[in-house]
Design a protein that fits this description.
With 198 residues, this protein is mostly helical. Helix content is 46%, strand content 8%. The protein is built from 9 helices and 5 strands, in the order βααβαααααββααβ. The chain has a 3-stranded mixed sheet with strand order 3-4-5, covered by helices on one side. Strands 1-2 form a two-stranded antiparallel sheet.
Length: 198
Amino acid sequence: MFFPLHPETPPEGISLEALFSGRGIDTRAMNQRMVELMRAEGLPYGERTHTYNSRLAQELGKWADACGVEAIHDILYRAYFVENRNISNVDELVTLAQSAGLPVDEARDVLLERRYKEAVDADWMKAREYGVTGVPTFVSGNFGVVGAQPYDALKNLVCSNAGRLKIDGPASLSTRRGLNTSRTAEQTKPSRPNITQR
């Protein structure tokens, strides 16, 4: 499911300095922390200076999923988080689609005609209904966690719901009204998963 992280970001992007202006955040220190965390997990992470609107990249991802081309997600990750490329630019996205083995002309048409706009709109609506406030968000049963999590946190999330969790397929997800974004399990509302943010 795709999530609208900073959907107000203009197509040309915005510097991280401007994005976090007035919030007392040292963007260089933040970036260095991410580099170290990602390195510990064996993942690449570059010197990010800007954030870009990911809407068209999400639409490209939806199309690639429909084509069975999962590689696009790693390619988009690398382009955005490692190479600091503008993933809201159609020409850039077409180049990335080609590197995933997708047909260039069709990729351009998919993006320009916004063929997967409604599919991404549906994901965004589902994210709002669930109360998702950040990425990634992991949900199991009526509980969840937001943000990068250590293995043990994810294991505990799944194991704590193993006896209670009934999975009927996609329909079981659509019956949820939303996610409770409170921090503790004690505050769980019966109809909404409890989300712990880190």
